[in-house]
Amino acid sequence: MPNPADLTVVASALVSDERGILAADESVATMSTRLAAERITPTESNRRDYRELLLTAEGLDETVSGVILCDETFRQELSTGEMFPVGARRLGILPGIKVDTGTQAFEGAATATVTTGLDGLGDRLAEYASLGAAFAKWRAVIDIADPDDRALASNAEALAEYAALCQQHGIVPIVEPEVLCSGTHELSTCADVTRMALTVVFDRLQDRGVDLSGIVLKPNMVTPGLDNDDAPAPPVVVAGATLAVLRETVPSEVPGIAFLSGGHPNREACQNLAGINQDAGDAPWQLTYSFGRALVSDALHAWAGAPGFVGAAQTRLLNNCRRASAATRRPVAV
Ligand code: 13P
């Protein structure tokens, strides 16, 4: 049985020291779509080259504590011949693995989904641990247009089961109940649905006996929908609404909260994170980032699949990571 203290150390390391988590775990299908959109042929080797470019950007470990990879990348090799998780550790970055297998329609609901991947999860976690995984991720998707109670309960149960299994295998679970940012909804609707989702998720985690000091929560920030005419909201408004929901729902034992970017561009996501940290006062958790698109989209665009543009792409990535890292600074209490 793994030592619970180790889980706490890893969870804290992921969210501390002005560092955050790079989400580079797009599924093969999603990554292929993103490559094709940049006119890059979506082959296995191009997906590998792109992830190598990200991970090996010099000095990435100054702003990035961990990288989330998908199964394909986890089993690929860097140009050094090391497997990605081994290379990540050498570079000072903890390797993480996305272990859910996607979503399926929730029976009887309008558009709500439930996340799949519990079948055989224990065996897969044992293998990922042997390959070097320090942490894992499972993403539940909460559709703001159809926040079906039963789908929410089912997603929360799956998250709790996943988190308990991860901890049994010595792997820190990232618990991600993502209320989608797309849509025309008001900020107050996002606040209501996020509050509801986090309440149910923490109920289930506690029922299942998950050690909350050995998890990282990965939620959305509370914002108006990306297609709302009033979007984006000022960072001070997003910060106030986000912190109010977190204070109502997230127990103080949780060491850190690493937000997803949800389709918000880098500058906006970072301004919102900075606003949250400015306003956080004595909030008990570290407040950092686990952005995907807000860190990597510029790099993918700059690379365009050309070896000669690797350096330019890495510069874009590092600049975005530095901006995110600066946004984690909290004013010193006086
Ligand atoms: P975005 O930051 O692009 O939303 O991705 C984060 C993530 O890992 C979603 O599961």
Task: Please supply descriptive tags for the structure shown above.
334 residues; alpha/beta; 46% helix; two-stranded antiparallel ribbon; globular; 10 strands; TIM Barrel; 12 helices; binds 1,3-dihydroxyacetonephosphate
Question: How would you summarize the topology of this molecule?
Answer:
Blueprint: H1 4-15, E1 20-23, H2 28-37, H3 44-55, E2 64-69, H4 71-74, H5 84-90, E3 94-98, E4 103-105, E5 113-115, H6 121-131, E6 135-142, H7 149-168, E7 172-179, H8 187-207, E8 216-217, H9 235-249, E9 256-259, H10 266-278, E10 286-289, H11 293-303, H12 310-326
Parallel strand pairs: 1-2, 2-3, 3-6, 6-7, 7-8, 8-9, 9-10
Antiparallel strand pairs: 4-5
Helix pairs in contact: 7-8, 8-9, 9-10, 10-12, 11-12
Could you walk me through the main structural features you see in this protein, from its secondary elements to its overall organization?
The chain is α/β, with parallel strands linked by helices and 334 residues long. It is 46% helix and 14% strand. α7 links the parallel β6 and β7. The model has no long low-confidence stretch (mean pLDDT 97). 1,3-dihydroxyacetonephosphate (13P) is lined by residues 23, 139, 176, 260-262, 291-294. 1,3-dihydroxyacetonephosphate binds at residues 23, 139, 176, 260-262, 291-294.
- What is the total number of structural domains? 1
Major sheet: size, sense and barrel closure? 8 strands, parallel
The quaternary organization reads as single chain
Q: What are the secondary-structure elements, in order, as H or E?
A: HEHHEHHEEEHEHEHEHEHEHH
CATH C-level class is Alpha Beta
Q: Give the cofactors and ligands.
A: 1,3-dihydroxyacetonephosphate
Q: Could you tell me the strand content as a percent range?
A: 5-15%
Low-confidence stretches: none
**What CATH architecture would you give?**
Alpha-Beta Barrel
Q: Over all CA atoms, what is the radius of gyration? A: 19 Å
What is the CATH topology?
A: TIM Barrel
